[in-house]
Amino acid sequence: QNPKTSAIVKQLVADGNAGELQKYFGSRMEFGTAGLRAAMGAGISHMNDLTIIQTTQGFCRYLEKNFSDLKKRGVVIGFDARAHLSSGGSSKRFARLAANTFISQGVPVYLFSDITPTPFVPYTVTHLKLCAGIMVTASHNPKQDNGYKVYWENGAQIISPHDKGISQAIEENQEPWPQAWDDKLIDSSLLLHDPYATVNKDYFKDIQKQCFHRNINKETNLKFVHTSVHGVGHKFVQLAFKAFDLSPPFAVPEQKDPDPEFPTVKYPNPEEGKGVLTLSFALAEKDGAKIILANDPDADRLAVAEKQESGEWKVFSGNELGALLGWWIFTCWKNHNRDTCAIKDVYMLSSTVSSKILRAIALKEGFHFEETLTGFKWMGNRAKQLMDQGKAVLFAFEEAIGYMCCPAVLDKDGVSAAVITAEMASYLATRNLSLSQQLKAVYDEYGFHITKASYFICHDPKVIQQLFDNLRNFDGKNTYPKSCGRFKVSGIRDLTTGYDSSQPDQKAILPTSKSSQMITFTFANGGVATMRTSGTEPKIKYYSELCAPPGNSDVEQLKKELDELVNALEKHFFQPEKNNLQRKTE
């Protein structure tokens, strides 16, 4: 019943454009553990009013089956600032339609009245003890995309088998219920609540438990620049600084207000490096700021850059910032917990494609480190399990600039990560240390961990399948590569098939998934490289790392060795020319 998407389809029918109609209606968007992520537009392969109604009807029925008290507890729904003029879709509209679906079934809905960072949704689920949460966002995807992200009652993103159950329920509830389109009905409903004021107050109170140096924060001369890259983060990072008694960061004026067109950047993704930070560098130079904090548009990720002595800007990788925050959060914990026995209940987590630096710190300091599959859904769920057993999960991170620094949010959170990074930098400044110098000190103490990650773009699923099949049948059927150029392979773990050469029974310990590709190669020189497909983008990604024991300080030699390993990986395993793969470009 949306006049815009309806008109698009009618026009295609009138034009007899079977090819485009096939694209729009050939296959339904797949609901996975990440929920939905697709372009806004007409048809069942896109995000629009109808597909949001259908998805929410399925999700509602699935929750009714799982929670006898759903009508007492309810759900929370948040949204970012995305909008798509040509199809009439927007995050706010989708959120309202989803709220209407639940309310029509007598389920209380806590619908934020304004845009919020993604982490506010998982925070609200646990804080208000709700059954589930929905965040309408496409994070840092291109502007035409939107998404529908789902959290379970434990405050973590859903994992299997919930995705299958919800997907099935969507299939069974495709016809819109009687008042599905009339979202105005919710405005007069007693089942509609607005958690905005409460959550804004309580969230900033809760993250203050991670504030350890209020006096330093009040006095510091260090200046920060913050950009929210046309997303939702500006107001919330300002409030976080206030909660920590830090002077507010300078906001990049052209990027501080939400704008669904993302006019100043090619991709609204701070992970893409310096291109996204051009305006931040200019403002920092003008205002004499040493450190830049950049959130992605839904403020669940954080990139950090620091001005070096040379005048150059260093953008920290996700692994480098993970090393710094891991060191910092553990140091703060240690200074406030004199009881040496308590360390046996302390945990840190990271995903299997992230740097193993936390493992090195844990080994030396005596706390526990665990690695999980890629993605915060795994770390959030594991953290909750550990917390329920009385353990303290201090920190979790993934190399894709995602950090969980505060146990009140069981997902990545770019708001708390930004202010905790600012406090760490302010503290280090009192010791005349920069973030870069402290990073080197961490590596000196725990061993250098050099990482390199990139990706190739490939729009043809058949080529991707063939590439991975080739690796599994490298020297004849069911044989993996024994070497990669001059680098000897010493171990293989394939989390698509469940094979792990290092286990006595050759079965992988981490959960396996046939629906995504992921192979990890361990090399005789201490290198590790993982190749995997992306769940949300047409990419084949790779992650590589060389870990040296403490004392091996020839960083240039380590970097050279890793560069050679990566070149061999690209040449022999990816074969970009043969497979027609497009390289990542700045």
TrEMBL record:
<comment type="similarity">
    <text>Belongs to the phosphohexose mutase family.</text>
</comment>
<dbReference type="GO" id="GO:0005634">
    <property type="term" value="C:nucleus"/>
</dbReference>
<feature type="domain" description="Alpha-D-phosphohexomutase alpha/beta/alpha">
    <location>
        <begin position="346"/>
        <end position="446"/>
    </location>
</feature>
<keyword id="KW-0597">Phosphoprotein</keyword>
<keyword id="KW-0460">Magnesium</keyword>
<keyword id="KW-0313">Glucose metabolism</keyword>
<dbReference type="GO" id="GO:0008973">
    <property type="term" value="F:phosphopentomutase activity"/>
</dbReference>
<dbReference type="Pfam" id="PF02878">
    <property type="entry name" value="PGM_PMM_I"/>
</dbReference>
<dbReference type="GO" id="GO:0000287">
    <property type="term" value="F:magnesium ion binding"/>
</dbReference>
<dbReference type="GO" id="GO:0005737">
    <property type="term" value="C:cytoplasm"/>
</dbReference>
<dbReference type="GO" id="GO:0006006">
    <property type="term" value="P:glucose metabolic process"/>
</dbReference>
<dbReference type="InterPro" id="IPR016066">
    <property type="entry name" value="A-D-PHexomutase_CS"/>
</dbReference>
<dbReference type="InterPro" id="IPR005845">
    <property type="entry name" value="A-D-PHexomutase_a/b/a-II"/>
</dbReference>
<keyword id="KW-0413">Isomerase</keyword>
<dbReference type="GO" id="GO:0006166">
    <property type="term" value="P:purine ribonucleoside salvage"/>
</dbReference>
<dbReference type="InterPro" id="IPR016055">
    <property type="entry name" value="A-D-PHexomutase_a/b/a-I/II/III"/>
</dbReference>
<feature type="domain" description="Alpha-D-phosphohexomutase alpha/beta/alpha">
    <location>
        <begin position="29"/>
        <end position="175"/>
    </location>
</feature>
<keyword id="KW-0119">Carbohydrate metabolism</keyword>
<feature type="domain" description="Alpha-D-phosphohexomutase alpha/beta/alpha">
    <location>
        <begin position="202"/>
        <end position="307"/>
    </location>
</feature>
<keyword id="KW-0479">Metal-binding</keyword>
<dbReference type="InterPro" id="IPR005844">
    <property type="entry name" value="A-D-PHexomutase_a/b/a-I"/>
</dbReference>
<dbReference type="Pfam" id="PF02879">
    <property type="entry name" value="PGM_PMM_II"/>
</dbReference>
<protein>
    <submittedName>
        <fullName>PGM2 protein</fullName>
    </submittedName>
</protein>
<dbReference type="Pfam" id="PF02880">
    <property type="entry name" value="PGM_PMM_III"/>
</dbReference>
<dbReference type="InterPro" id="IPR005846">
    <property type="entry name" value="A-D-PHexomutase_a/b/a-III"/>
</dbReference>
<keyword id="KW-0963">Cytoplasm</keyword>
<dbReference type="InterPro" id="IPR005841">
    <property type="entry name" value="Alpha-D-phosphohexomutase_SF"/>
</dbReference>
<dbReference type="InterPro" id="IPR036900">
    <property type="entry name" value="A-D-PHexomutase_C_sf"/>
</dbReference>
